[in-house]
Amino acid sequence: MEFGLTSDQTMMQESIDRTLARVAPLERVRKAGEPFARDVFDALVELGVPGILIPEEFGGLGLSLLDAALAAEMLGKHVAPVPFVASAVMAPLALTGTGTEAQKKIWLPKLASGEVVAGVAVSEHASGAREKAQVTAKAGKLSGKSLFVLDFNGADIFIVADKFGDLHLVDAKAKGLEKILLTTIDTTRAIGELNFDNVEAEPLTGGNGPATLERMIDAGRIVLSADTLGAGERMIEKAVAYAKERKQFGRVIASFQAVKHLCAEMVAELEPCRALIWYAAYGFDALPDQSRRLAAHVKAHLSEIGPFVARTATEVHGGMGFTDLLGLHYWFKRIGFNRQILGGPEKARHDAAVAQGWTGN
Amino acid sequence: MDLSYSPEYEAFRDEVRAFAKEFGARAPRNFGFNEETRAWQRLLIEHGYAARTIPKQYGGFGGTADILKSRIVAEEFIAAGLPMGMQNQGISMLVPTLLELGTEEQKQRWIAPTLRGEVIWCQGYSEPGSGSDLASLSTRAVEDGDDFVINGQKIWTSTAAQADMIFCLVRTEPDKPKHEGISYLLFSMKTPGIEVRPLVTMTGRAEFNEVFFADVRVPKKDIVGQRGQGWLVANATLKHERGMLGDPNQAGTRFKALVDMMMNEEVDGRRLMDHPVWRDRLLKLQARVLAMEYHGLRLLTASLKGEDPGIARLIVKLQGCELNHQLAGFANDILGELGILYGHSPHLHAHGEWQTRFMFDLGLIIGGGTAQIQKNIISERGLGMPREPKAAS
Hints:
The structure holds 2 protein chains of 2 kinds.
Chain A: H1 7-23, H2 26-30, H3 38-46, H4 65-77, H5 85-98, H6 101-113, E1 118-121, H7 123-126, E2 134-138, E3 141-149, E4 157-161, E5 167-171, E6 177-182, E7 191-200, E8 202-203, H8 209-245, E9 247-248, E10 251-252, H9 257-286, H10 288-316, H11 329-340, H12 345-355
Parallel strand pairs in A: 1-4
Antiparallel strand pairs in A: 2-3, 3-7, 4-5, 5-8, 6-7, 9-10
Helix pairs in contact in A: 1-3, 1-4, 4-8, 4-9, 5-6, 5-8, 8-9, 8-10, 8-11, 9-10, 10-11, 10-12
Chain B: H1 7-23, H2 35-47, H3 67-80, H4 89-101, H5 104-115, E1 121-124, E2 140-144, E3 147-155, E4 165-171, E5 182-188, E6 194-199, E7 208-219, E8 223-224, H6 230-245, H7 248-264, E9 266-267, E10 270-271, H8 276-304, H9 311-314, H10 316-334, H11 353-366, H12 371-382
Helix pairs in contact in B: 1-3, 4-5, 4-6, 7-8, 7-10, 8-10, 10-11
């Protein structure tokens, strides 16, 4: 019985942390650029991050979802403006889950090496359809639209779920595919809209599409939650450091109990989230019968605690917290993005209830 | 991360299950200060399921510290519906303190009968004027020959009416700074001059007492640690209490009861579980219960490895007590108007226990270091934020 990280895992986290501190300081994050911060992405490619879940036989690191969550925590901590949740987590799971041998051989090595970036269009299944979005497949062609496509900008391919939950691989340059970038609060990650007008697509037929789609969504939820954990940790660090420096009424504001208690509350709420994420991520691989429920719980809980920390840390900074100059809002918005994507807390809790048989669909 | 148990522990689990099967019938029907409970306690010590790590020479089982085994015992006893060993302040707080700081004579004299439930202790710490600022306590002990003569008052003393003995903080050096003038004394509750008055709380029950001392004469030799060092001795004890108050297993047990209620309680002929608003609230609490349970596993692993989990440990009392209170509050809400029924009212559900727990939990949030004191500890010790400057007096 060991509920904790291995020294390899701790070392991997530290090396991602150090690398991002070097290549992705806030000045770099501010100018994320198009389609994403390529130099930051390249530095992560060196560490193998895009291939973290991809089996070694396809050029990846062949690690577990817990490792991916630990990496995501560091990405959130540094508000890294790079693709990850779709390209390094959900798309590889789609291919390993239900890709044919040929599809795996072509795409997995390219995803692992960072040569190809994959977007993922599953929002209608994870959160429910908005704006009448729906994708239908007929004789190898896709029609309709999908919204809130993850890791959208710079994607070379898209993994698209049709209305039955079957999965398709679409070339970003395919004829009849219209791509519209959506502007969100969070400038560090791009989402977009795909409109399909009889677009040629390769079905992923090596396994069970809908079951794989569920696994992708579960993994995405855990990884986004870990991103929120990292962003929240950094916000607490910044709030505490600021409070120790800022003087009012002749003393540092960190000596006022009103301020100290805000900081203590943030830690008290966020720290148990770490164990919840570890368990859910471990469970994704080791306890698959529990993983739907755990992933939904993690997503719901971090979607509540993350914004509490984001708001409180901003308040501890006083007026400065509200400015663009300080840049705290990059973490605030990252956490806000993570809350809504792949199912907000109400939807995730509903999914957790369904997974326990407490209600029907 | 590896949540499986090694064969050694699986074998231990089998052993505990076999015990439960063979001896389960001897479990006391009425757990309390009585002979059937003491007999059960002796049986548990003999098998190493209570007082596991206390050395044999002091009446314990003499096993090595193994948190995992303690956890397995707890899991299997809960599963079999058997009561664990006695949990009182003597066993949980005084015994570890004596082991750490007592003289050999004190250990020989007190530990074994305390473990067997033959000597019941109460704790004399809080005073009407000294709650969060415990070190300001003013119960005086004045030296007179071989004795101290004690005058003053304690409050929030649970089990004082049943207790044979008290471990008590008194001021022996009134001229020294407040933390350096306190001593930790052991004495009999039957000593002349002690008066115990039950303290009825908001629950309507007397879970605590007030204890008054008027010229209470006790032997000087029954001091733990040196004169004036009682504050250090007390802190060794409080450390044990804080672990006790934030028990995540309790939240898990309560949550299971809530799920049962949601499945069985009906409003307008419809199960509560089928009402989305109620279900959503239940699930919010479930995430918190799970997070604290896994947080507990993380702390357990850290202790097994001899690592200091730092700030992760400091939040347990605050979060654990608050969560239990929220669970009880939700149970009251599930019951609607039935939830405010109390005492022996008709239509009581769940024995009317949830309101009592809801209120008593508030006592636990306040006792053992209030939520606000916990936040000071988290921010000062955990985050390195400075103490509030002393007010000019």
